[in-house]
Sequence to fold (301 residues):
Amino acid sequence: MFFFSFWWLLAVCGCTFAYIEIPEAYLAAIRQDRADDQSAGEYNYDNQGDDWTGTCQTGESQSPIDLIFDDAKIVSIPRLRFNYYDQPLQTPLVIVNNGHTANMVIPLTQRGQRASINGSLLPGTFEAQSVHFHWGYYHTKGSEHAINFERYDVEMHIVHKNTIYDTMGEATQHPDGLAVLGVMFRAVNRQSSQHYGLNKIFNQLPRIVQYNTNATIMGRLTVGQLLGNIVTGEFFTYNGSLTTPDCAESVTWTVFPDVLDYPYRQIARLWNLKDSRQKPLVDNYRSLQDINNREVYYRTI
Fold:
């Protein structure tokens, strides 16, 4: 069964629209992702999350944190293994303005596998579920984590679920439920970018300015392309939480200190998005949280 969307402008004719077939399984995943987001209730970033309640206030293993090389334990950590990250995803893909971020649910690859990660200190194999972004504004840095006291223009999160759990909702109830990769973007004065996978996403941002709108992404895209050219052999890893309500302490974080340079003009497209109140969706990052004696580990090449 398919859902038919007619938002995609047919390239060969500037005046007509073509129907796009989206598999029902992918649509169901998008609906579930939306339901999971709405289950957290209404929230905003007016106070950078300091006014959020529940576990967000009382938790002892909250994220994000400042990742400091001199304070981290440099230990022998296995490399992070990326499975099917180089395989093209089924298309079309759908990117959504959910009022908190630009979010894209990650489908199966064209061969029917699901991109996943294991190795490092991960307690299992984790399948890629979605990707979203946190950003600042003209004069603010929007990354959630800081690295050696420095924050960056954008932080991208690729969210993964432990394969032993059936749903994201179930996974968030367990300390080994989720694994998130954090990638920092630095805005640079460059007109074009060779990061074609990211370009496919950012080029669609003008279509999702309004809350609860979506756009389709066509063509070849792999999860690996989202990582750009960063060095993935060095990283910080620690146990933490989701950075949005309900701030469940279910995440094994992997944050790369290598930073991806990306054009300022592309990053600026994020600043045009609107939240559910029709206010500018900017500075959608949470304040840094206390480490509370947690161990932070660092893998070096």
Notes: Residues 24-38 form the longest helix (15 residues). Confidence is low (pLDDT under 50) at residues 1-17. The chain has one domain: 62-299. The first strand starts at residue 2 and ends at 9.
